[in-house]
Amino acid sequence: MKPTVATEIRLTGDFRRLWGAFTISQVGSALGTGALPLIAILVLESSDLQVSLMAALSGLASAAIALPLGSFVEFHRKRPIMVHADLVSFAALGSVPVAAWLGVLTYTQLCVVVTLVTLCRIVFNAASGVYVKALVPEPGRIRANSRLETTFWTASTLGVPAGGALVSLLGASVTVLIDAGSYLLSAWMIRTISTPEQQTAHERPAHRWRTEIRSGWAYIFANPALHRLFWNGMFFGGSLMLTAPLLALLMLRDLGFGPWQYGLALGLPCLGGLLGSVCTRALVKAFGEPTVLVGFGTLRTCWLGLLLTAGPNTVGLVVILTAETLLLFCVGVFNPVFTTYRMNATADDHMARVGTAWSISAKCFQPVFIALGGFLAAATSIRVAIGCAAIALLASSLLLPWRLGRKARE
Question: Is 206 a domain residue?
């Protein structure tokens, strides 16, 4: 069957305002990447274990707190929720430089701040997914989600190195303050959206905490395609995150590369994600959404094993950059198609709960995979641990909804 081409839908000014708010907060977050750990290390003289625990435990704590919030987001207006999530992030991050300048900053405060910001991101993403679906008709959603994905990769490519320069020039506290200000601007942009938000057409069922908490997962597991995409996403994301600290050890310790080369390996491949997100619409027009979803969902699992062939020379660095760039290119194509598919496959009265369940699950799976990678590397070697992650990544492609691709070709 020849892929059908959706009619182009012009994105509204209100979507552009939401996109602008997303851009501002993404740029701020990219600039502030690493600033809080630096404050923990340089200002509070926290240990390596404390810095690691701050990231891991805050993710788990925010996921636990977010458990009952999916239902709350579902049955309340989404724009005020997004505004308040941004304002809480602004206040939390803004408290860090103020406390540091007053000399009263503590490790506990940093942990609370990271937890609050992570929690607000989960809530904001759940509400914004519903809001994008309301603002953009179905034929325009690939285009809208591709633009959001392009923004993410652009901010990652340019913002992270710029943030490093800002930390060097102005200090970590000022950089965190700039990040905080981006959330305030984002809240203001969302407030300028003029389209009245419709009252939810669905009513909240009888208030039962257990039922409401698990309703997002229940909906996912009742849909065969979403069920497979969920487990694919958990194993893909976990396996990929497992390699993040191991790549640093591989490059800096085993292969003897310098910090600037490691920084290059973190930043340059983001251009692959940017290029992939730009190509998404053309690929969907050529092959159809199901084929791109399954095809690039598989292709993104094929490149991690190349890291094992890297040597301590220029060729080895090129191999690492190539593997990471190809992986992120495929991720950049896959993500907006996946986001659009999940958006279209989820009923309006479950959008927020499904999004929250997905985010909470990722926040729980990824620290577990990272810990497993650390134990495996300690028991064997870094290359063995990366090799196991590469095999797990390949195996995750078996969990994709292959029937969608076969139906598209029939």
Answer: no
Question: What's the pLDDT tens digit per position in 118-140?
Answer: 888 888 888 888 888 878 888 88
Integer Rg of the chain from CA: 21
The larger pLDDT score, comparing residue 252 to residue 311, is at: 311
Which class for 126: exposed (0-12), middle (13-18), buried (19 or more C-beta within 10 A)?
buried
Q: 189 and 260 share a domain?
A: no
Q: Which long-range contacts (C-beta less than 8 Å, at least 24 apart) are formed by 57-61?
A: 57/111, 58/111, 58/114, 58/115, 58/118, 59/118, 59/363, 59/364, 59/366, 59/367, 60/363, 60/364, 60/367, 61/115
- Burial (CB count within 10 angstroms: exposed 0-12, middle 13-18, buried 19+), residue 293: buried
Residues 178 and 237 in one domain: no
Is 375 inside any structural domain?
A: yes
For residue 227, give the nearest of 364, 409, 403, 72 by alpha carbon. 403
pLDDT digits (tens, 9 = 90+) for 135-166: 888 888 888 888 888 888 887 777 767 776 77
Distance CA 320, CA 318 (A): 5
Q: Could you read off the pLDDT of 3-12 as tens digits, one per residue?
A: 444 445 566 7
Give residue 198's region: left, alpha or beta (phi > 0; psi -120 to 50): beta
Among 196, 230, 259, identify where a domain stops. 196
Nearest alpha carbon to residue 201 among 133, 126, 140: 133
- Which structural domain, as residue segments, surrounds residue 268? 218-410
Co-location of 184 and 277 in the same domain: no
| Same domain for 162 and 231 | no
